[in-house]
């Protein structure tokens, strides 16, 4: 595997290999010196052309924990603001010979484009409403940690599926690991044709008790302006996961950031069923494992270790 | 071709020796010598029978001669966007595709919405166009959808018809007035059918593939509902409408229903909608595959092919829409809609529909020029006494699209990289040689 652009670049065994390696990295995070030399001397560029707290900081921490050199760039304050095209930016930065580029973009397919313009390995950290494969990996990691195996688990993804890149990566990831997936939300926010991914579609929470895992998606206020929902109030009344709807045997997940009182009631966020904090924590070790897989693991380009400093003749 | 303009070309004196002439409308389907004198087809005869004195001789053996193609729907980007295409490069691209006449859309900058702009554009075509070019004028001023253009004056200035192509005439009341005014001005109303409240921010067909990709979709009903509305208006006003670039099964049904009801309606489909589907976007989110209307599903594609076969769809039109490289080398959602198509139209349809036996060659050759009749232009014919308007094609030649670049100024061709069969070797338009393939040898 040269890049991680889509969760479909991986199969079950590749996912399990990455998650097992992530598990082994948890030990690093517990050390006083949270660093191993696995990627020493490698250059990682984090290009975040869209706001991000968790994804950006965890990629940075992951690269640093593996001793890579990291540069972070965001669209504000960069030449993108001066109208430089994505292609020119990537080709310019590629002149610095990065080994890996992490890209977050508001545009579908941006990571694929970047992969075509650089020799570096590319990790998709979210491309528009398309995919967010490392989120899917960390979600599977956190969930495996809680329930052991996903085989046969009944997972409900609830909310704004239409505008969710998390859903588009998580549906295939959960299914590859043997889970049954149902998406649920108002019909205006369930994209036509989503069932071709192999998931079921529900428009009410009536059968939510059948779920083993409830994965709530973020509901953004601006969806109201485009009439996707008549009001956030009505949305919350019908789709909010609260203490009444969440059974004690169920597991609650959310990709963050949470809109308290919209998709989740305050009482479930801190409930024992919730593994939202574990999802965040998994971000660093899972991204360490992804960086390792691409730069030092199976399928990574072989590089000769350079021991001496080349001297011009 | 009175309202058509092109730069003066010396009338050809030419003998195409022994090519297989296929002119379905004239009922010719046999090897022939075709003698052109002074730009007119002077004589047809058995292979080897016609004298070659004083004319250039072209060896046509094993090749085909078709009546030249006519495209009722191209964007030549002039005036205002000559970095994408101009009258010279656009007509060179057309000639390389076997076209002998094209009709340019008015969504330029400025918009062709008044007689002075149209007259100056026609004058420019008399200097630059390599094959005859006709022009449609806008239905509404500035394509704004509000006020009608001076349709009668524009017709007097040579507009073949009217369109707001690129946009629908969204307000039914405005289209109704245009249909009423058509009684005075004449000229077909060519309609880009799309309900913007249904298309929204869509960038591709709404369906399984858009659901997977997370891209906003343009539903098929965005097109078909507006066709149904406009057919009803045309029927009520007894107006004449032409539906541009059909893309959906529902649209074919809407046109068929309107024809059955006696509405004066015709329709076109593009080579890309006839041969490609949105599945191509799953393989690669290539911005060259982004156009409006979008590539739809296999069911839609088959409905279009069926519509072409049964006559619901009257002609093939490319909607040749060039865009500069830097405009297309951006993320999919940011890229402008459109694909070039003039140089690949015949080969794409021949390779994907004729070779597998889906459509007969006669029908494809016919539909590639019937667009002329819709706009009141004469149909090219390989017949004695007619102006020489034909192309010489090698059906055996295989080529990779884009391998040697394009005649168009732009390279945003949705067939780029595909291997196609059928290569245009030469095009004679309005009696003059408009195109000759680089490698094409001249015998005498």
Protein structure class of chain B? alpha/beta
Low-confidence stretches of chain A: none
Placed side by side, the strands forming the largest sheet of chain A appear as 7-6-5-8-9
Oligomeric state of the chains in view:
heterodimer
- Number of domain units of chain B: 2
Top-tier CATH class of the largest domain in chain A: Alpha Beta
CATH topology of the largest domain in chain B: TIM Barrel
The count of strands of chain B amounts to 18
Radius of gyration from the alpha-carbon trace of chain A, in angstroms:
20 Å
Low-confidence stretches of chain B: none
What share of the residues of chain B does DSSP label as strand, in percent?
15-25%
**What's the architecture of the largest domain in chain A in CATH terms?**
3-Layer(aba) Sandwich
Shape of chain B: globular
Radius of gyration of chain B: 21 Å
- Average pLDDT for all residues of chain A: 92
Q: Quick one: biggest sheet of chain B?
A: 8 strands, mixed
Structural class of chain A: alpha/beta
- Briefly, what CATH class of the largest domain in chain B? Alpha Beta
- The helix tally of chain A amounts to 9
Helical percentage of chain B = 25-40%
Strand tally of chain A is 9
3D structure, described in words:
The complex is a heterodimer of chains A (313) and B (444). Chain A is of the alpha/beta class and 313 residues long. Chain A folds into 2 domains: 7-131 and 283-295, 3-Layer(aba) Sandwich (Rossmann fold), CATH 3.40.50; 133-278, 3-Layer(aba) Sandwich (Rossmann fold). Helix content of chain A is 34%, strand content 14%. Chain A is built from 9 helices and 9 strands. In chain A, the strands form 2 sheets. Chain A has a 5-stranded parallel beta sheet, covered by helices on one side. A 4-stranded parallel beta sheet of chain A has the order 2-1-3-4, sandwiched between helices. In chain A, helix 4 (110-117) links the parallel strand 3 (100-105) and strand 4 (121-127). In chain A, helix 1 (12-30) crosses helix 9 and helix 5 (133-147) crosses helix 6. The longest helix of chain A is centred in the last third of the chain and has 20 residues, at 276-295. Chain A is globular, with a radius of gyration of 20 Å. The two termini of chain A are 37 Å apart. The model of chain A has no long low-confidence stretch (mean pLDDT 92). Chain B is of the alpha/beta class and 444 residues long. Chain B has 2 domains: 14-65 and 386-436, Urease, subunit C, domain 1 (Roll); 68-374, TIM Barrel, CATH 3.20.20. Chain B is 30% helix and 23% strand. Chain B is built from 15 helices and 18 strands. In chain B, strands 1, 2, 3, 4, 5, 16, 17 and 18 form an 8-stranded mixed beta sheet that branches. In chain B, helix 8 (249-260) packs parallel to helix 11. The model of chain B has no long low-confidence stretch (mean pLDDT 96). At the A-B interface, helix 4 of A face helix 6 of B.
């Amino acid at each position: 595997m040269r890049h991680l652009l889509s969760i479909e670049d991986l199969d079950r065994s590749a996912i399990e290999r990455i998650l097992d390696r992530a598990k082994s990295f948890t030990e690093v995070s517990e050390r006083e010196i949270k660093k191993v030399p696995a990627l020493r001397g490698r250059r990682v560029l984090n290009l975040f052309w869209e706001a991000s707290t968790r994804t950006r900081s965890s990629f940075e921490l992951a690269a640093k924990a593996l001793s890579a050199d990291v540069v972070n760039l965001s669209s504000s304050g960069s030449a993108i603001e001066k109208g430089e095209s994505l292609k020119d930016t990537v080709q310019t930065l590629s002149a610095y010979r990065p080994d890996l580029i992490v890209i977050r973009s508001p545009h579908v397919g941006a990571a694929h484009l970047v992969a075509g313009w650089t020799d570096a390995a590319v990790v998709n950290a979210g491309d528009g409403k398309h995919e967010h494969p490392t989120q899917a990996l960390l979600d599977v990691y956190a969930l495996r940690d809680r329930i052991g195996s996903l085989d046969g688990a009944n997972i409900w993804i609830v909310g704004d599926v239409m505008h969710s890149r998390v859903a588009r990566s998580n549906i295939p990831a959960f299914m590859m690991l043997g889970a049954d997936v149902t998406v649920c939300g108002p019909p205006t926010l369930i994209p036509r044709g989503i069932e071709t991914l192999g998931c079921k579609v529900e428009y009410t929470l009536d059968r939510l008790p059948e779920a083993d895992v409830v994965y709530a998606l973020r509901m953004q206020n601006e969806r109201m302006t485009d009439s996707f929902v008549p009001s956030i109030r009505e949305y919350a009344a019908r789709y909010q996961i609260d203490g009444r709807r969440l059974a004690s045997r169920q597991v609650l997940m959310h990709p963050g950031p949470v809109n308290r009182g919209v998709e989740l009631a305050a009482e479930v966020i801190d409930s024992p069923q919730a593994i939202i904090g574990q999802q965040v924590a998994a971000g660093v070790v899972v991204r360490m494992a992804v960086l390792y897989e691409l730069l030092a693991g199976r399928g990574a380009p072989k590089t000769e270790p350079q021991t001496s400093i080349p001297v011009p003749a | 071709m009175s309202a058509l303009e092109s730069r003066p070309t010396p009338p050809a004196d030419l003998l195409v020796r022994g090519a297989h002439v296929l002119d379905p409308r004239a009922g010719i389907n046999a090897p022939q010598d075709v003698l052109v004198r002074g730009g007119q087809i002077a004589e047809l005869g058995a292979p080897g029978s016609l004298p070659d004195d004083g004319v250039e001789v072209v060896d046509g053996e094993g090749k085909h001669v078709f009546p030249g193609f006519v495209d009722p729907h191209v964007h030549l980007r002039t005036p205002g966007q000559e970095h994408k295409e101009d009258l010279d490069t656009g007509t060179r691209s057309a000639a390389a595709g076997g076209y002998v006449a094209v009709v340019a859309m008015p969504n330029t900058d400025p918009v062709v919405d008044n007689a002075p702009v149209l007259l100056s554009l026609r004058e420019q075509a008399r200097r630059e166009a390599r094959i005859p070019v006709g022009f449609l004028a806008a239905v509404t001023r500035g394509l704004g959808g509000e006020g009608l253009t001076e349709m009668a004056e524009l017709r007097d200035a040579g507009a073949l018809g009217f369109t707001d192509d690129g946009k629908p005439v969204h307000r039914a009341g405005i289209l109704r007035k245009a249909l009423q005014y058509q009684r005075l001005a004449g000229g077909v109303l060519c309609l880009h059918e799309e309900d913007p409240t249904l298309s929204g921010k869509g960038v591709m067909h709404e369906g399984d593939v858009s659901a997977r990709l997370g891209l906003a979709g343009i539903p098929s009903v965005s097109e078909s509902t507006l066709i149904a509305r406009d057919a009803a208006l045309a029927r009520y006003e007894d107006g004449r409408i032409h539906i541009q670039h059909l893309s959906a099964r529902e649209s074919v049904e809407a046109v068929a229903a309107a024809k059955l009801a006696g509405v004066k309606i015709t329709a076109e489909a593009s080579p890309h909608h006839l041969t490609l589907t949105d599945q191509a976007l799953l393989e690669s989110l290539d911005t060259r595959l982004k156009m409006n209307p979008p590539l739809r599903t296999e069911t839609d594609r088959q409905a279009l092919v069926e519509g072409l076969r049964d006559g619901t769809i009257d002609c093939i039109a490319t909607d040749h829409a060039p865009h500069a490289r830097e405009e297309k080398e951006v993320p999919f959602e940011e890229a402008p809609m459109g694909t070039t198509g003039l140089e690949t139209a015949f080969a794409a349809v021949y390779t994907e529909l004729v070779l597998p036996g889906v459509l007969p060659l006669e029908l494809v050759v016919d539909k590639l020029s019937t667009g002329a009749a819709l706009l009141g232009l004469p149909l090219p014919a390989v017949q004695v006494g007619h102006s020489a308007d034909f192309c010489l094609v090698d059906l055996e030649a295989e080529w990779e699209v884009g391998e040697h670049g394009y005649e168009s100024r732009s390279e945003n061709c949705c067939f780029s990289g595909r291997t196609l069969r059928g290569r245009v070797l030469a095009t004679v338009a309005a009696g003059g040689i408009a195109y000759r393939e680089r490698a094409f040898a001249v015998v005498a």
